[in-house]
Amino acid sequence: MIEAELENFIKQIDLPKNQILFLHVRLKGIANDLSYDILSKKIISLFEDLYSPKTILVPTFTYAYTKTGVYNKMESPAEVGRFSEEIRKMYDWECRTNNPVFNVIDTKKYFTKYNLKEETAFGDDSLMHLLHEMGHIVINLNVENFISTYLHFLEYHYNVPYRYIKSFPGEVILSTENTKQVNYKYHVRDLDADTSWDRNMIKETLADANGLRVYNSGGIELSWIDSEKMESILGKKLTRDKNFLLG
Length: 247
Fold this sequence. Notes:
- By secondary structure, the protein is of the alpha/beta class.
- It has one domain (3-246).
- 32% of the residues lie in helices and 23% in strands.
- It has helices at 3-11, 36-51, 65-68, 82-90, 127-134, 149-157, 199-208, 227-240; strands at residues 20-25, 55-59, 70-72, 104-106, 137-141, 163-173, 179-189, 213-217, 220-226.
- The strands form two sheets. A six-stranded mixed beta sheet has the order 4-2-1-5-9-8. It has a three-stranded mixed beta sheet with strand order 3-6-7.
């Protein structure tokens, strides 16, 4: 897929305008005529120009915090793929949220007006809790199976038995002048249990219920779903079977 084909592809997906977009991307194999930094910028620009989102959120998660006890908002590298790291380097560090694990680049600083807590992954006043209340659109571009951080939130929200809250004390470096001590509450998995999601089953469940919309072009897949639709479908499943996501 070359640059022009990528633009035409993203044009055809009928994405609602003026929404909050949560974007998961794997760069390898998309528009091989562009370098990764230029391609990353192009992808963001296409979604902005075509769909006028309130903001675009790109995960820059830092799982290393659970081992090091340190998250540096200005310097900690993203640990969830090349696209995330390219976007982290592209935007001012003030666009990055303060959560020591589930931090994101908020391209338009939309959430700076909210008092988000650094101490919780999915609890009250976390970004994911706010996204649950406000609604957002999850987009997968060229990724395997189905990826969404909102699935983790749904596990928390429906109190699945294979995860529990564990505290991780540490510090969040917010700027050169501001470091905050935190006792981070993380919804961790039970290491004695098999907690792997059945991602194929999850994807099929969402698609079969007319929630997940899937498009293909030139060997590249793009899918999207509204978070409210996702909860409507999976929430009913989790109410009946709290282990549903595990298959």
